[in-house]
Amino acid sequence: MQHLIHKAIASTASILTLGENRLSILIFHRVLETFDFMRPDEITAKEFDKKMQLIVRYFTPLALSEAVEKLKNNTLPQRAICVTFDDGYRDNAEIAFPILKKWNIPATFFVASGFLDGGRMWNDTIIETVRNYQGDELNLTELGLDSFDTQNNQKKEQSAQSIIQQIKHLPQQERHQKVEFIASHAKNLPNDLMMDSAQVKNMSEQNISIGGHTVTHPILATLTAEKAEQDIRQGKKALENITQKPVIEFAYPNGKPEQDYLPEHVGIVKKLGFKIAVSTQWGASNGNSDMYQLNRFTPWDKNNTKFLLRMINNLRVTG
Ligand SMILES: [Zn+2]
Fold first, then answer.
1. What's the CATH code, domain 2-117+194-314?
2. Were 283 and a residue from 136, 252, 279, 295 both cysteine, which residue would form a disulfide, CB within 3.0 to 4.6 Å?
3. 56-77 residues labelled b (16+ CB within 10 A) or e (exposed)
4. What distance in angstroms lies between residue 72's CA and the mean position of ligand 1's atoms?
């Protein structure tokens, strides 16, 4: 394995030199303790640890704010990389943070403040409901949705994902009502999926920067400008109250430009005093990139050679 990785790196050495003054920003969401059949694509602690080891070995991890400063001054070291996490899952504090600490990798955690201290994001409500559902079929035709097969773990995972896809783009209020109805089909949904305020504060005093990610994680493009501004502003304020530090980094929820957020939201983020904002548009960034719409990408590959190659390849695309 090690040999293959070295070979992969060596054979792409010419591409690696492209890495000068180019910044890769990685996005993670969760790091699971062990494999979860309801979340087969999420990285486990063991896999995350391995990836961080490779990052330390082949890249130069930097704090996002420092990297952006260096990007602007054209002083970024080769193969600079930033690690970011979105949403504020508890496992970021309990599983990812100790691993980041072990490898001395700084990171930014973008936290949707409304879910701290016992909240749950709607997609997790769907996943946990389907996981806990006792019957063989979850009939949601009453909601104008399908009837979903819940006979085994694999079917449950597929059904949860199709429910999420079917209701994802509904207006927030309508989606909320459907989620509440779906949740009534299961008991004992977890209230400990997200961080608590003490965890946020504790990490902000160490090598972790806490960034804004709104309060309620809305698709900003679907809101009025006033509502969008309010959600972004209140999220910033809530995190500043917890950390007692200025919150200067922001991640757009869902993060696809023109789809999930619009140019007016970039203006709002600037106006509210953020210094850096990140999207989920793929690619690396260079000195000409918009510091309020920096690209990021998800290194989802479980295979570590592919992971490295993808990261190298990502450096070729700038925006
Ligand atoms: Zn998010």
1. 3.20.20.370
2. 295
3. eebbbbbbbbebbbbbeeeebe
4. 26
